[in-house]
């Protein structure tokens, strides 16, 4: 029986980074992955295909150029599924190649098949050809991720009623679509459909969209999506989704019935632990298939770690990678360093894009933290005008006394990139004065940081004038 210092189950972002981190420490590591899923949900059905699809849609529809060239501007007028999938297939293949290559050059073998425990340190791999191989491991990292939740009340057929894995293989673009669940997945796909001209209805059981985001930014997103014909039904539960000869019917608990060509059911995900024979390792998962871990990502069995989506929130590729690295380092007694999970950015690739780091206005208000807001609107930035983005905005939340940056919220082109400037300032415990004094390239969207910082400083100065406290914190003199 082959024996390893570390065996990783799952080759998504969490598993890859755990295996490579172990290899870099000079340990023998191996990865087990089901056939056709190298790179995990991230590469095959989730992050990468959805972001590539979005990019293809933005390019082919010419959506981002319409402010400059008129509302009828298109790069291609009759966009087909083939036009869209060509780019996705190309990028996914490239990414899989990168992962295989990285594992190979770090001498990490990849076993192909489905893994399950036969003991706390023994893992059986069921290959697709029926062969079963058992390998031993001093440490195990479970990085098996999640799959879409599929309730029995929804008549999935993979063609007209689909989950977020199946949406990528739709045979034709729907004229109308219902999206069930306005989580990040639902909103990203609703944006993509709407950009393609599909008439979209979004059903969400909560009374508002993405409640962890800044309200003003969500209002801006709602405005943009409604402007593109999206209908939102909040505080509505879906009872059943039915398939009929002439299309689908989504029936709500309130009695409403919504017909559509296609339904995307994107209301949550389930941890992939049911086939792991966890009991053989002395472990158990919760009812959503998730594993519980401590701060070092150890499960109740100390040599078995769990990382990535299978442990739940925040369930992002970026965090999953970092959790994988930390688990491997911990297993081999290597200091992990302090990862700044407090200033972890969130990027939502709706159209337009949203990204933020730190607190929202609602959170600061609830915590009685005095803060000031500084805003830069893209339409007042030369780069915004050049790009034809008049709706974008960058908003800074600043502590009214210490002048430290408490939150950064960006809406519009390149939001997910721009947020990292604010993240760095926050991570280094910087004040708004750094942004006031720094010189930014011109014309850039990054210049928005300076504009927003000046806006916040001007408002703080106005308060100080009234209170007589004018010069106290001028230009970081605290
Ligand atoms: C549509 C969509 C869009 C997303 N967009 C973003 C985004 O823009 N940004 C972002 O940060 N995150 C995004 N995410 C989330 C991101 O994809 C996940 O956070 C990330 O993939 C989790 O990584 P992971 O390694 O935990 O698991 P996964 O990527 O899910 O990989 C787990 C792997 O384990 C394998 N596996 C499971 N059971 C077994 C077994 N018994 N034996 C062997 N192998 C097994 C699976 O086959 C799978 O390949 C998105 C997700 C979806 C669905
Ligand atoms: N850009 C990104 O970072 C990104 C993109 C996509 C997905 N992800 C991650 O993938 C994970 C899964 O995303 P998700 O959107 O599937 O799940 P989710 O749990 O975040 O959202 C599901 C939504 O569906 C709603 N819902 C549930 N049942 C319903 C019903 N019967 N009727 C109406 N509404 C219902 C919920 O209230 C919730 O808002 C998330 O953790 C997310 O962070 C991240």
UniProtKB/TrEMBL annotation:
Which species does the entry assign this protein to? Williamsia sterculiae
Function in brief: Conversion of NADPH, generated by peripheral catabolic pathways, to NADH, which can enter the respiratory chain for energy generation.
Domain named FAD/NAD(P)-binding: residues: 4-324
> Any note on cofactor binding?
Binds 1 FAD per subunit.
Top-level taxon of the source organism: Bacteria
Query: By what name is this protein known?
Result: NAD(P)(+) transhydrogenase (Si-specific)
Q: What is its EC number?
A: 1.6.1.1
Binding positions for FAD per the UniProt entry:
51, 309
Per UniProt, the keywords (alphabetical) are: Cytoplasm, FAD, Flavoprotein, NAD, NADP, Nucleotide-binding, Oxidoreductase
**Mainly resides where?**
cytoplasm
Cofactors required: FAD
Q: Where in the cell is it found?
A: Cytoplasm
Residues engaged in binding NAD(+): 181-188, 204, 268
Q: Which family does it belong to?
A: Belongs to the class-I pyridine nucleotide-disulfide oxidoreductase family.
